[in-house]
Sequence to fold (233 residues):
Amino acid sequence: MESRRSANADIFNHDAEAADYDNDVRNEADPIRTGYRDVLRWVIREAQITPSSRVLELGSGTGNLSELIASCGELVSVDVSENMEALAKRKVRHLTNRRFIKADILEVFTQELGEFDAVISTYTVHHLTDQEKQRLFALVFGHLLPSGSAVFGDLMVQNSSEKEAKIRQYLTEGDQATAQAISEEFFWSLDTAIGGLERLGFDVKARRFSDLSYGVIARKVSSLERLTEEGAS
Fold:
């Protein structure tokens, strides 16, 4: 039977790095971190979270994303790292209807989660292989309410050719750490990801924030909306 847990969940468990994580992400001179705060703010703005929204947060980390939520009806935050969650708790005390689940972002969908108005995630989905990303997108689609949105901010390249070009670019610049991250992790290939999201029934838009950081908003189009659009065309 296929495992519901992502293959590299334990590798990317950031318990050991939790104490230094927030200082690390503030270093926007690092190409991996450039645009970090702008990406987080954009994700929250595009998610259009209201005081009654049910929100699912995948890869909640130290709470840097969810602390930007002014209020919501319920927030379900998911992460594999208890040490990261210990830091997050201090930042999200204003969200009284927050619930934390210690789980991998794929395996959490085996639980009874219900449906959400918004799914949000930053700098987490690049830990999934391309095949796992497609599984995640399908699970997210199935757990979104009609006209709900999934908003992602993450490390991405346009396609496999750009990935190889970026590796060469950073090696030429003497930045072996960034080149290694692109090579060893699973940065989104936007062409593949957007195609998969659209096939599921999402309306997708992408925005670039830096050389390696993008935002993607995937709005679930209801059957009625799709029929209306098809009729208009």
